[in-house]
Amino acid sequence: MEKLHTQQSRDEELPQKESTVKTTPESYNLLASSMRPKDVLAKHASHMSLFEQAEILEYDLVYFLSKNPPRENKGDDNLGFDDKKGHYTCAIHDHVAYRYEVLE
Q1: Which of 8, 35, 78, 94 could form a disulfide with 82 if both were Cys (CB 3.0 to 4.6 A apart)?
Q2: CA 10, 16, 17: angle at the middle one, nearest 5?
């Protein structure tokens, strides 16, 4: 008869790592969890620019919506989101595709 042995769980063998997720002391996310775009609009449309209200409908789910006030329309074609060369101007606590928060 063959002798059988048991192996420790792989979780017990691996060293525990610290979390690398960056957090901010105060959350800038208006959403407690992911939401459908139409639900976000029903609750937070007043906090969004007209451009964002149209853009958000292109996504299946929204994970992040910043508490930052909407950007002002400066009367040009880029609605205040781009510089004069057409490059996006990033702002702290802004969203990327309504999914990620800009932290730095």
Answers
A1: 78
A2: 125
